[in-house]
């Protein structure tokens, strides 16, 4: 389904700025017809209110996901589409369900449990994070590489 790899970076903002990360993200789903997704990204904010921008290899914006309490929107190709939840928005943008809320915790170094997912934070200090979803099937692998 989706494979995201590359280089990404965690910018350490001042204490009163929103957290911000950038780099490459990849998702691979090992289904009968394997699917993958890969993009550059910028992620800022929190699970409650934030923004995820996805970029193509040439640096053009593919999509921008924006959420806040009671609102989740996908901005792509000059269109804005509302969604009922952040989970539905992320699945539409990437082609697979992803634990975006937990991703914030993982990037902060907290191994938040998500049913079916296991995050490997052992290389986070070098800007690499991997998470594996075993349930529900098919198996999916999420990779994040942060810019240096």
From TrEMBL:
<keyword id="KW-0564">Palmitate</keyword>
<keyword id="KW-0449">Lipoprotein</keyword>
<keyword id="KW-0732">Signal</keyword>
<keyword id="KW-0472">Membrane</keyword>
<comment type="subunit">
    <text>Monomer.</text>
</comment>
<dbReference type="Pfam" id="PF03550">
    <property type="entry name" value="LolB"/>
</dbReference>
<protein>
    <recommendedName>
        <fullName>Outer-membrane lipoprotein LolB</fullName>
    </recommendedName>
</protein>
<keyword id="KW-0653">Protein transport</keyword>
<dbReference type="InterPro" id="IPR029046">
    <property type="entry name" value="LolA/LolB/LppX"/>
</dbReference>
<dbReference type="InterPro" id="IPR004565">
    <property type="entry name" value="OM_lipoprot_LolB"/>
</dbReference>
<keyword id="KW-0813">Transport</keyword>
<keyword id="KW-0998">Cell outer membrane</keyword>
<comment type="similarity">
    <text>Belongs to the LolB family.</text>
</comment>
<keyword id="KW-0143">Chaperone</keyword>
């Amino acid at each position: 389904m989706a494979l995201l790899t590359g280089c990404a970076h965690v910018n350490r903002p001042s204490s009163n700025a929103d957290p911000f990360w950038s780099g490459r993200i990849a998702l691979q789903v090992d289904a009968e017809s394997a699917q993958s997704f890969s993009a550059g990204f910028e992620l800022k904010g929190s699970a409650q209110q934030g923004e995820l921008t996805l970029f193509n290899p040439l640096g053009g914006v593919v999509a921008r996901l924006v959420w806040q309490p009671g609102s989740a929107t996908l901005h792509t190709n000059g269109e804005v589409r509302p969604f009922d939840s952040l989970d539905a928005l992320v699945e539409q943008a990437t082609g697979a369900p992803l634990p975006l809320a937990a991703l914030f915790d993982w990037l902060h170094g907290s191994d938040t449990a998500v049913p079916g997912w296991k995050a490997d934070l052992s290389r986070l200090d070098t800007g690499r994070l991997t998470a594996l979803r075993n349930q529900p099937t098919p198996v999916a692998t999420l990779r994040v590489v942060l810019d240096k």
